[in-house]
Amino acid sequence: MILLRHARALWGRFFWLPPLPWLAYAAVLAARGAARWDHLAVAALVTTSAYASPRSRRFFLNALPFLLVFLAYDALGQLGGRVAPDDVLACELRDAERALFGVQVEGGLLTPNELLARLTHPALDLLCALPYGGYLLVMGAHWLHLYRSDAIAARRFAWLAFATHLLGILTYRLLPAAPPWYVQARGCAVDPAAQTSPAALVRVDAMLGITYFRDLYSRGATVYGALPSLHVTYPLYGLLVTLRRASAPSLALQIAYAALMLFAAIYLNHHWLLDALLGYAYVALAWAAVGRALPDRGTPAQAVGALPPLAEASGSQRISGVPRSAAAQRLQTKSASLRRFR
Q: What is the predicted pLDDT for the residue at 29?
């Protein structure tokens, strides 16, 4: 009963709802024998953060876009079913790359992927493995930093990631496309049962004597999810939300990271250049929508003070910018009176 009252105090009459989608998803996968440790870990994280305390509830609400992305992206592979071969773009993207961005080399027309494949070197392999191996860590660390220092920027970051991923996942379903490594290995024939691959990152696994990238890409949602490239969008979330306030070294580092991610996507044979361009277009669309929904309110200090934390209100209270305490209301009234005499 104590736990029940605690949950009701945090969420009101719908106290049972917040963790339900993730718990139900983990239960469905467990019944199918397809549940992994990360499904259980996310379900536990959601439940704990939703109910532990008002502070953890605030974290849950601010992290909600990322949690929804996990659910939608993973369900694409677990519950999405197989694609119809006739619906998949395979050699069509390669031909478009050659027509738009092809480079004449020794009498042949090469795509950017084929051109960069001639530069293969262990040092480049390792360099390109850095953004592909650590993008989740970098994105999470950047968001947590903003969450502690600039509430509105953190929310813009999270919802920008959500909106971009939503557009990408919808495209994966409506316009499945084969990545360069698939066309290079299998040609234009589409196999609905094909498995995901780390492509050129297998060289990094072999060089370091690890199976990190093989294991990572074994959990990929779909082989035919090349268009758009979401990898190239990850560095842009933090770059866009901090563009007006970041220091010059920070901006330089973020721009270099974004450039390296683009180079790696092509060099590692994971994406066509067209995939990257569509990813950038989706970020632009998502950024326009997020900018309207969550406008920038000035300096970080002003932004934090202008919008109260999402979880400051209980489940039955309406979130508002009006101070709740009588002392705060009196102070606000006095400030307004002083402004009239200036």
A: 94
